[in-house]
Amino acid sequence: MPVETCPIRRNETQPGGLARYGQLVGGEIVTGERDMEVLSPATEAAFAIVPDATRGELARAIAAAGAAFPAWRARSFDERRACLLDFAAAILRDRDRIAEALTREQGKPLSRALSEIGNAVRAIEDICTIDMKPQLLRDTPAEKIELVYRPLGVVAGITAWNVPVILAAQKIAQALYTGNTMVLKPSPYTPVATLLLGEASLGILPPGVLNIVSGGNELGAWLTSDPAIAKISFTGSGPTGRRVLEASASNFARVTLELGGNDAAIVLPDVDLDKVVPALFAAAFNNAGQICMAIKRLYVHADIHDEVVRRFARLADEIRLGDGMLPDSEMGPVQNRAQYEKLLALLADTRAIPDAHIVAGGVAPEGAGYFIRPTVVTGLVEGCRLVDEEPFGPILPILRFDDADDAVERANASPFGLSGSVWSADTARAAALARRLEVGTAWVNRHGGADGGIPLGGAKASGIGREHGLLGLRNYMEPQIVSVPQVAVAPC
């Protein structure tokens, strides 16, 4: 069955009340041979239908990107920047529609969805301001040597379900600004808002420069192993990241992996609790804890441990949990059933630990939806699952320490190394401790947030390479030495 070319879809309602969305391939919104439903994590009911791309449909998207590459590569940075800034403006124009889709498929409150779209637009704008000049390595009377960077070709982008619009926008901007073309695959749990980005690009980006295809895990495997793919940018879990790395070996595709984290925050006893506790709480529980760089382990000095726990428990109990489409909801559900069941199993394991004390939450309300109350746990040490693994949900262990050096050592005793933070009134001391954290990003008196101009990535099992900033953009390009004689020389 051939792919059907469709007009731009604007919430086209299908039988059963479901809206149908198409893929972006070669500058057109298209449907395909197979469909899949998208569920709302707040209701557990389907609300949309999207394509479940076949291997042939993926091949057409990759071919479209390959055909568009020579002309796009030939454009200047200024020309590509102008297209991307127009794309960002189109996203902003469609933000209400994209935000509603994001809330329905991901679960976060609508206000948070709008914020995510705003941050995605700013990321595109920030990335497009980065100067990519050649680097002069040597300039002598005999020779001039420069380090230049050239586009790689077709980039495969694969995004996760927690902040899908931000992740998609960042990967699109980096790949296209550096002269590559892209085939982007969103998570099968949250494809709709990303497909709407494809609609926003119509008439702005040349056909084939950006292609967005939706589907399940097999689509990701086909995409990463395709010999036409020159670069893979993946954000997701460690196990899937390993499979991506293995697939890339078949054709030596360049790879950037932003994987999970088990971020530690260390709180010294001299902090102002009135200011610090709300910031720590937000860094742990924003997006229902479903942020790679969220605080997953909170180390608090013994002198203030009990007071911090008391304040955290109060904040957790005050959170209004509910469907993100309701105006008074402050925290939505866990995004999907698999993650929800993992968290419930983690809570069951934690309850079985004799010294564990759940001081807030620990409850999955009855009824539809993957809701879990924000949960605070004390009495744990390293060696239990909640401390050693990344929960990726609204469950936080608060751990006691007496010595800051010991806290750093415990924080580093993890296979993960995405990010971490140190909190103290003495910023010089905190900075010295932060530099000892074995992480890609170490903050002082803050935790979380990404900036398109600042490199982002993990150490150890938390990733390979960097996204964002000059360092991240160079990960989307091939370095090349250009050596030119300054005087006439005899040919070899």
TrEMBL record:
Catalytic residues as annotated in Swiss-Prot or TrEMBL: 258
Aldehyde dehydrogenase domain ranges (all copies): 34-482
Pfam families, alphabetized: Aldedh
Molecular-function annotations in GO: aldehyde dehydrogenase (NAD+) activity
Enzyme Commission identifier(s): 1.2.1.3
Top-tier EC class: oxidoreductase
Keywords: Oxidoreductase
Annotated family: Belongs to the aldehyde dehydrogenase family.
Record's protein name: NAD-dependent aldehyde dehydrogenase
